[in-house]
Amino acid sequence: PNRPEIHAGHRAVFDAIEQQLTGKTPHPYPPDWVAMKLLEGDTEITDLMRAALGSEWEPVAALLAQHDDAYLAVASGRYEWIGRMVRAAVVRPKLGQVTLTDRIDRLATHPLWGPLLLLAVLGLLFSLVFAVGSPIQVWLETYVVRAADWTRAVLSEQPQWLSGLLANGIITGVGTVLTLLPILILFFAALGLMEDIGYMARAAYVMDRYMHWMGLHGKSFLPLFLGFGCNVPALMGTRIIESPKGRLITLLVAPLMPCTARLSVVVLLAPVFFGPWAGLVILGLVGLSLSMLAVVGMGLHRLLFFQDTQTAFIMELPLYHVPDPRRIGMGVWQRVVDFLKGAGGVILVMSVILWWLSTYPGGNIESSYLATVGHWMTPLGKLMGLDWRMMVALLTSVVRKENTISTLAVLYGPGAGGTGLGDILGHHLSPVAALAFLAVQILFIPCMATVSTLRQETHSWSLTLLSVAFLFVISMGIGILIYQGAALLGWSV
What we know:
This protein is mainly alpha-helical and 493 residues long.
């Protein structure tokens, strides 16, 4: 039936009362509904019908008096109807039946094996991302370089500022955006795949306790892990964090992750100064970066959540299911478009500004405004055993981290590339000064693409500039601490 019925034991009295009420109930009440309300003891309907029936109310009242327990029959009928509806609509699994999700989650959410499985899955996914994306990025970079060279050749008879603006400023800026796209697209696809399958929730669950040690959210692990590849997708990956404060903390600490560009500079220079100990030095620098991330995360957590009570991380673990390529593709498209709209323009503007600072007024980097800033920073550099050229190399790394090497090659003399550059740097820097420089390099202001993305994700220039200033101060502070600490210990500096 499409509605509850009175229990069979009182069906006869219900029919008798309904028959006596037929044609006598006030509009718009139907007789069967009024009969049911009278049997369940509804006082409002009882008073209404007593007034409406007058003398004809007595037979009805007599029937109700004889069956004063009828309200139990009404309730029983309703419960029977509810039971039938539930049995028809709900599929109950057999007791003891173990689903595929249960079997996978025994491993995926295990306190020990869960994090290890997560590291294996992420390592595989993002190794594929960078294995496939990096060659495409390098291929695009060659065309960006060719486009810049072609522009210089075509405009060779035009004013130098015009060819420099187009080749080194605009084309470089647009090229930076284009070369980031392959890795970004593949990263967003990998992230969407994990979300669509249902594994993202498990990853956040197993990492929550570890992230809370650093004052971060469980889902913070995923974007931070991506920071080893590139800080740009790491920042954009924070969109999976629902908590505004948790997302803000992750955004502010993500630039401390040692990306591949920073590591490439460290890996190239460490063997020059430390020889067979270079591997330990590199591991130590990565550990330094991660330690600073943890310390800063805990500090920001205490600052932003000072008066808050941190709640437990509670979430529903969805069932595993086959991913939908169309849904994943739409998510990738939306995220890429957001990146191009938000960060692309800022990258272009910053490229032009940095080109101008590194070119004018003398037409080359040695006599540029950027070099002037490097000379201004010489007193700071001396505290770390670094001259102005090393400081300029740090400043140019804001465009791209790899610029550190090319800038050092230009400033330390012609032909100073590869081994030659290593020999020259080995004569100019002591191992302690080199260690200070590498520590500053791995903690320094991130590249302009990361800064632009940070501005896009925080929607605040104030927070972005505050983050840049903080990274500048903390990196310089660590560099000075290393150099001056070694001097106090009597080591050769």
